[in-house]
User: Which sequence fits this backbone?
């Protein structure tokens, strides 16, 4: 099975690679030997085909839609959840910076940091991926596994040095990703943050250009919501003129991106091939079983969401410590319920302890990523208990605001009386009226 990883300038053909952590291992794990024979006629045919020009062959993948969790963004863009946890940002591979979505930026209010995935009412992801297909080669190079002398002949040593696969090539093309975050202004009723706002956003984000209804919806959206965008692209050259990004420019460039990539493609991904596909590996390393991470995606996505949720709670606790007078104890729960759930009181000592606890849970999640990297079977073990507390359960113990309660209730479609009772049970503290 062939997999792919985001391209990094440090990658080289033949390097060992860990597909779970997306980290580079030993160099020249596999060497590429030229074929013993070649047909000049075939090479001439390829040159003639290149000189003839014509439209380039492309494979275009376009996706757009609302996303609820950051793990949805990672899944849609074919990124690694574990790599996002370890690096503290989403989509930073090969970009030489802080990434497409920084963890801190993902939790900041829109009006403060220009991001705010967690604070937004709606998040809309636009993703376009273009792959350029070169002419097929009739004669492939011979791949030969290169054993490391002196290395212990154990699976543990092999996986630590060589990883679970190797880089067998690169894909050229382009990739465009845009995340539009919307936070509606409070209208007193919360209708815009519910179905009404979602319907307006869906119409405004429609790719139809020149439609009067869509144009009116986009104008209404800018008046009723704060719009923030995160944009990242590779390939295509300078795809946009000077000026700020907005909904019109994002959708327009996403539609024209394949044409831009045809003029200026670049490497966007590394092709990963498993060692077990090589005859030379099976001959030289009998009994060695490389790690298999194929079934770790779901659990890793849950780890990413929990990590991000705890990161968000740390920021909220800092806000509570900075201005504790803005909150008072609520009378929504009885003493019996409060004793059972043990809500965190609005005291500096308890809030600071809660912040320390959140950071401890984040470290445990990072440690769990390391454990899965060494033993992928943990992700599929039904009896394995995650070594950290559920982020949703811990959030139920925190002081909450009315805005938090509204957001939870708006995302529920016509909540029942039982759901409302459960929400009220978790509302221990509320702002002063």
Assistant:
């Amino acid at each position: 099975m062939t997999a792919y990883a985001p391209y990094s300038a440090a990658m080289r053909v033949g390097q060992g690679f860990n597909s779970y952590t997306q980290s580079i291992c030993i160099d020249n794990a596999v060497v590429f030997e030229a074929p013993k024979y070649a047909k000049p006629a075939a090479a001439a045919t390829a040159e003639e085909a290149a000189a003839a020009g014509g439209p380039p062959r492309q494979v275009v993948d376009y996706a757009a839609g609302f996303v609820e969790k950051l793990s949805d963004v990672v899944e849609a863009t074919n990124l690694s959840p574990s790599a996002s946890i370890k690096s503290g940002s989403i989509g930073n591979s090969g970009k030489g910076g802080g990434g497409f979505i920084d963890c801190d930026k993902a939790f900041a209010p829109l009006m403060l940091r220009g991001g705010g995935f967690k604070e937004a009412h709606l998040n809309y992801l636009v993703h376009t991926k273009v792959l350029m297909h070169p002419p097929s080669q009739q004669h492939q190079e011979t791949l030969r596994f290169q054993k490391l002398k002196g290395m212990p002949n154990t699976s543990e040593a092999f996986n630590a040095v060589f990883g679970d696969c190797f880089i067998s090539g690169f894909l050229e093309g382009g990739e465009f990703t845009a995340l539009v975050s919307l936070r509606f202004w409070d209208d007193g009723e919360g209708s815009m943050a519910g179905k009404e706002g979602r319907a307006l956003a869906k119409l405004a984000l429609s790719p139809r250009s020149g439609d009067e209804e869509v144009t009116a919806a986009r104008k209404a959206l800018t008046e009723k919501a704060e719009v923030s965008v995160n944009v990242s692209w590779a390939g295509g050259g300078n795809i946009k003129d000077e000026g700020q990004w907005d909904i019109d420019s994002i959708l327009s460039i996403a539609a024209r991106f394949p044409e831009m990539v045809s003029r200026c493609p670049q490497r966007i991904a590394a092709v990963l091939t498993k060692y077990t596909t090589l005859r030379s590996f099976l001959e030289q390393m009998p009994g060695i079983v490389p790690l298999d991470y194929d079934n770790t995606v779901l659990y890793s996505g849950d780890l990413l969401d929990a990590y991000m949720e705890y990161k968000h709670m740390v920021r909220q606790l800092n806000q509570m410590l900075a201005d504790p007078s803005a909150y008072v104890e609520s009378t929504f729960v009885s003493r019996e319920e409060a004793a059972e759930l043990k809500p965190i009181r609005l005291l500096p000592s308890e809030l600071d302890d809660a912040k320390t606890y959140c950071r401890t849970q984040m470290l445990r999640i990072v440690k769990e990523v390391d454990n899965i990297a060494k033993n992928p079977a943990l992700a599929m073990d039904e009896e394995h208990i995650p070594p950290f507390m559920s982020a949703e359960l811990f959030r139920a113990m925190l002081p909450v605001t009315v805005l938090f309660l509204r957001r939870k209730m708006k995302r529920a479609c016509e909540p029942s009386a039982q759901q409302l009772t459960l929400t009220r049970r978790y509302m221990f503290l509320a702002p002063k009226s």
Observations:
- The first strand starts at residue 3 and ends at 6.
- The mean pLDDT is 80.
